[in-house]
Amino acid sequence: MRHSTRPSLARTVAGVVAAGALAFSLTACYSTSDSESNNTAPIHRTNPTLPASEATPVATVPDLSGGVDTQVAVDEGFVSALTLLGLTPAPVGDATFADGTFSFPITGGNVTYFDPEGEVRPYVQGDIQHDGSGLSLTAGDTVVELTNFDIDPGASKLYGDVSVNGEPVAGHAYLFNLWGGTLEPLRTEGTNAVLEGTTVHVSPDAAALLNATFDTDLVPDELLVGVATITVATQ
């Protein structure tokens, strides 16, 4: 698991603005969907639970370097926003994009899955790394790249590196919030384990910055971006 500072998204976006672009955040600004009421993740509180060290997990994969990938099926509103704002998306590095879905290869980390009906919360824990891939958004001469995604399922957050026109802006910045309320039970496909249904949302920090930057109040916290499917090799 990598160790690095996690700057606030405020610093990240400020750096992007200083470089003359806020392309990534613009895409999230207009994302909508009918899949969730008001396009937001439900508010859920954390209750005291059994420590993970005292419970037996359903499945544990201590080394994720064998792959496979995290796919995000983007919301239709997200795609419409790209067209409306004149932004051109593209995969970066080893990532791919086809049929409305981004795919980011898993390169390392670990994951432990506990019984959803049990007392351990969060019931998915670990660190899922995606080094060497990401996505870019281009508007005119400005190219914003979001790369090296790192999912912390225990914190329900996704971090990543941000650059503008090839210049680093922030490392391991908090980009997305992940909500597992729609997560389907763990299933297997051959020797792979699959977790499907987590929704991906703009972080509250990003929403606040967007509203301040664009002098609007139209960007709610937890704005829906898409639905994730995580597939990991167990052997």
Which helices and strands, and how do they pair?
Layout: H1 9-18, H2 23-29, E1 59-61, E2 68-74, H3 76-84, E3 88-93, E4 96-98, E5 101-105, E6 108-113, E7 124-139, E8 142-152, E9 157-164, E10 167-179, E11 187-189, E12 192-202, H4 204-213, E13 224-233
Antiparallel strand pairs: 1-6, 2-5, 2-13, 3-7, 4-5, 6-7, 7-8, 8-9, 9-10, 10-12, 11-12, 12-13
Helix pairs in contact: 2-3
* Count of alpha and pi helical runs: 4
Radius of gyration: 17 Å
Number of structurally distinct domains: 1
Described by strand count, sense and barrel closure, the largest sheet is: 13 strands, antiparallel
Cα(first) to Cα(last) distance is: 19 Å
Low-confidence stretches: 3-48
Q: Care to count the β-strands?
A: 13
Percentage of β-strand residues: 35-45%
| Average pLDDT metric | 77
Give me the secondary-structure category.
alpha+beta
The shape, in one word, is globular
Order of helices and strands: HHEEHEEEEEEEEEEHE
What share of residues is helical?
Answer: 10-25%
Region (Disordered): 33-55
Protein name: Lipoprotein
Biased composition (Polar residues): 33-50
Keywords: Signal
